[in-house]
Please model this.
Amino acid sequence: MKRECLTIIGTAHVSAQSVDEVKDTIYELQPDRVAIELDFARYTKLKKSMMGIEEDDSISVTQIIKENKVGLFLVTTVLSYFQSKIGAEVDVAPGSEMIGAIEAAEDLNIPIALIDRNINTTLERALNRMSLIDKIKFLYGILVTDTDDEEIDIEELKNPENLDDLLGLFKDEAPAIYEVLVHERDAYLAGSLLRIPEDKVVAVVGAGHQPGINEFLDNPETIPPLEELNKVEDNNGIPWIKLLLALIPILFVVIFFLAYFNGINISWNVYEFIAISMIMGFLGSILSGSKIQSAIVGGLVAPLTIIHPLLAAGWFSGLTEAKYRKVRQRDIKNLAHVESFKDLWNNNIFRILLVVIGTNIAVSIATLVILPSRVFIPLFMQIFG
Model:
């Protein structure tokens, strides 16, 4: 690709005007190749949508939990909700400008280059770099954004000054997220463009990436190898919170053993521990709106999950709930049209996650409050009193 022959179109991903701009530019310039800010998975999904091919849109919550992709799924769901919400407000489907680019390129028989990094790689790299506080701030910042308070002017968001202010705030509030979602992808997109063999290229990217791409193209020596940007980094930091939480069940077990070896009859304490755990697991699930079967499972596994620091009762009740509530892609899309708690209540994703959270909260209350006061502190006092 020749730098002087590159035309970058910075778009708003839910802008009708961007769709027209993309098509008009491609038809006018008729480049050797059209580059679009998509990876293969998203491109394939858009193509099937364009051809009217309906896919099986079921989502395997069981697989998500088994592969430990819950955090990734939640972030993807929230991002999809946010983009769909804006798209619904301006009556433009997310990705319309990319569809416009694909249609224009195919009409002119121009080959397409997919220049974006796999979305799962991007999100996993972001999650691995985020602290717990970063994750809370990120989710809170997106969920509290209210698109109903004022009229949305998508085109104003493409103004360079407005973009600088928006991205600057994003960088200040969540630098780890900004690094992966914005700066790294700027480098990846620029590196992908430089690999295109044709000279004359039109690139369709989000307006927020345009300044960063230009900066990297002007200084190509600063672009990291794309192979390096595709690696999913392990979070090698010490998980202090997890370690502290793991100490609690270990402490419970130690107290039981000390009491036993000191000749204290712990039978009633064990029964009380099991009963309290099961009741709280059951109540947490059923009060979150679960099926009775899910509540029973949450209650049955609660004593084991309290002792085992790597297990959570909510996952078991949630998995059971998922068997009775089929989750589909439309449940994510429907989040954009939520206007009341009733709408949320009828959304299967929300209901399953609510069961998971509700069960875990109830069992956590048992672990941190009820069991220590009712079982373990009295035992501790008998041992050392």
Notes: Residues 86-92, 149-167 have pLDDT under 50 and may be disordered. The first helix runs from residue 16 to 29. Residues 3-229 form one domain. The chain has two domains: 3-229, 240-384.
